[in-house]
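Let us work through a complete example step by step.
Step 1: write down the sequence.
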Amino acid sequence: MGDTALEAVLRRDRAVVTAALAVIAVFAWAYVLWLAADMGMPGSPMSGGEAGDMAGMDMAGMDMAGMDMASMDMGAAVAPGFRAWASVDFVFTFTMWAVMMVGMMTPSVAPMLLLYAGVARKALADSRPIASTAWFFTGYLVVWVVFSIVATGAQWLLVRFGMLDPLMAAHSAVLGGIILIAAGLYQWTPIKGVCLRQCQAPIAFLASHGGFRTTAPGALRLGMDHGAYCLGCCWALMTLLFVGGVMNVLWIAGIAVLVLLEKVVPAGQLIPRISGALMVAVGIWLGLPAL
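Step 2: predict the structure and record it as tokens.
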């Protein structure tokens, strides 16, 4: 195969992978938007008066704790802020987190996947095939699925102790301020810097982890390794969802944009440090007056 033909194939592969990632992200975001609309969350077509009414549902002596599951709609199942969770609540909440993580993280991992797909095609042309890109991506997503289980547990605990409002945001300014300060300080830590450098430089990551894998289990593990660095880079930012609201679409989009900028803009540690300083400042401003 000539160089020109190979370049054409690689361009086609990049287009295929980009299209696949776009479809995955679109479906994930569509699901998030559907849930947000069903719950009347901020940033959704049904937000506004309905969300305000939901926040004040203690009026008229309503006994929300005794409501039967069969009488509640999907929104109440996903955000059971007024009663003990049933099994279905855990399932819905976990699904919400998992799909949300796919929608938020797929764009930021695209450079790594495009590199992998291009090398895989060239390796196949040279009769030295490596494992499919799909195995690597699956390993990456496994890490965020596990994180979604942890996030579901954290949300359950916060609801159980009455620390979240019906919109799944911090019930008090103090809690919101603490989360912001903690996330902002993490942005300045060495572990954040190490993980971010691995995410910013796919080639350096591959070089430090033995390169591409020829077997599916090897590619799966490599994807999990990359996902672990990504988790180390971004987990604190995900806690901010409990500040602005777990299903606040505009807030979710803002965090997703920040994650993407940190990884693709060639600014080293500048973006996380600026954002971290702002988080700490806003956290102090938010929490101190309430003390």
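Step 3: interpret the result. Residues 1-7, 43-79 have pLDDT under 50 and may be disordered.
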